[in-house]
């Protein structure tokens, strides 16, 4: 294995204390500061917007004015939406998000993380204006969702990236996971607003008021993010070294010459020097760079799961965005049906009940993120969800009277119980943790494009399942859940064999672990033994595989 011979020039301050202590000891020096919490909360408004625009649409399909304007009258005079029209209206949001996520990396690397987030918020305002101005053309309304999706997709890349690059390692997992918490809060808020306007109005105010409120969230994010410091890692990369040092120190609540600050700055400098020693970065190097194909594929696989629970379905079972291959919204899809077995037939009440469970459990999930390892939580959560899918699918298909659910109250009670158990599993593990793990996977030079590709895969499946779910469930009903049970089983194996434990480590440490082929199964034991001899991001794959196997913790 070859090591870099050239060392970065020593700065005016003395970084030696950082070299004399282990990274774990240095992380303990960091504090939980008000500034770091504000940064995490303000940036997470991007997640709130994500959840809000996703959660509001299911309520719209039950609104009389929305159906009269954009639906089709059936033989009885009732306004309905065909599967294709519903799928298009709902699916254009993730379609726009797919495009937005692919270009977000370049925007973030060009303008900076903060300005990219502010610009993305502006796009959602443009989309909301198009939505609200729609009169009787469903295509007009759907185009508004497409434009909103562009902004939301860009935010889904830029916000976790900004949070992971800026947050102190001691609370990075919690702050990035706040993005998922705010998604669930956005969903719940949209459901409450839909419920209120549906009962209070009979005209277009039913759906135009919820859409108009979106401007408030965009304004809070677009302006608020500009009052926060730039990502220290981005600032350092463009030559603003003093700013990066001061930002790291302020966010961690320590002196600018503290050992932990020196350690992080040294690591950032070392990685940047390695990058400068190599050739100019090309986008395709997220597949050809050192250990990048491995990490890019992991990011894609982890993101192709239900990234959020964006509302659930109205009485007509409109397909919803956000249902990827763990099938989280499969439970919401049938939520109204199984609640009828207990006498609750109002789809808005069903949404609020399940949404409240989702929010409460996600708050509890932040404790798990802070105190439990990434690997154990993800494996346990996926196994738990698999069991829920198996019970739900078989009971729903064989025991529930789907034509009249009140005739099978026992089956309904089982399904409601396992709906809530699934939400607990998802909201405490995969919901918040995957955003964190994916944001930690990549080195700085590849982070923006790699996160863009991983998140784009999320939105691709989001669109596919949003559009085709109704067709599939019409054919095989509850047995559709068996597909997702199988996906959850595969995810347990993926995490066990391929994802390293990254809790309480700096982003640069995590990069080094992947370059050195640290065995994921024993990765929680790995320690930095010689930071000067860490493998280079610009070296070859075979060179990296040679180093550091002697401690028994390497793969």
UniProtKB/TrEMBL annotation:
Residues 39-503 form the Major facilitator superfamily (MFS) profile domain. It holds the Pfam family Sugar_tr. It comes from the Eukaryota. SUPFAM superfamilies: MFS general substrate transporter. CDD domains: MFS_HXT (cd17356). Its main location: membrane. Keywords: Membrane, Transmembrane, Transmembrane helix, Transport. One of its GO terms (molecular function) is carbohydrate:proton symporter activity. The chain crosses the membrane at residues 32-53, 83-104, 116-134, 140-162, 169-189, 209-228, 377-400, 412-438, 450-472, 478-500. InterPro entries: MFS_dom, MFS_sugar_transport-like, MFS_Sugar_Transporters, MFS_trans_sf, Sugar/inositol_transpt, Sugar_transporter_CS. Coiled coil: none annotated. It is a multi-pass membrane protein. Residues 1-22, 532-555 are annotated as: Disordered. The keyword Plastid does not apply. One of its GO terms (cellular component) is membrane. It is found in: Membrane. Belongs to the major facilitator superfamily. Sugar transporter (TC 2.A.1.1) family. This is General substrate transporter.
